[in-house]
Amino acid sequence: MIPYWLSRMQLLLGDEKVTQLMNSHVLVAGLGGVGGICAEMIARAGVGKMTIVDGDVVDLSNGNRQIPALHSTAGKLKAEVMAQRLQDINPALQLEIIPAYQEDTQMEALVTRHKFDYAVDCIDTLGPKVAFIKACVENGVPVVSSMGAGGKVDPSKAEIADISESHDCKLAKYVRKRLHEHGIYKGITVVFSAEEIDTDKVIVTEKAFPKKSLIGTISYMPAIFGCMVASVVIRNLYQQAGIAIEDAV
User: Fold this and answer.
1) Which terminus of the chain has fewer Cβ atoms in its 10 Å neighbourhood, N or C?
2) CATH code, domain carrying 217
3) Of 18-22, 210-214, 230-234, minimum mean pLDDT range
């Protein structure tokens, strides 16, 4: 039974595709500027099961770009803030919350925790990011990964492509290099932008831990990346309903 709140999507996609989404389980790792809006778009598409992962708390500096960041939520765990929001969108959502930072060595257990239909990488720390992608590839879990949205202002430069086709993005370069060490060269869908970053807008500081630097970010770019990432997940999931559609990439 497709609920009334999904009636507009039912009109667009039809019963079979919506039902496919309702029967899917998606893992979202990272609930910051990209991951928060991505998780919300996946929930609003009617996906019936989600596991969300983030050990960070809301800081007021997140307020310019992150869905869970409000003055009223400062200091609260992003995973818990997002969980409340997602279940308010879809009260029937079966939601698992993992409000803890995941080390590289924990990614195998995370990815194999359930039989996920899709995994989303919105992690912004290089080591765990690569470990998460690697675990997905090795365990046959379809994965889409967000590259760097920080320092970018032009939405027309954002692209969806195979990681082997990503270019002029520093994060994508580092991810590719690390994955190559594990024999992984292609087969991972990414969202990236080749827009050049002004290095004057990047600050190396211990305050960025576990990252090494802070980068200037505008309100809409992480949201655009997050929506593009969500579109890959949603389109690929409803494609499994057996109705031919154009590829998500």
Assistant:
1) N
2) 3.40.50.720
3) 210-214
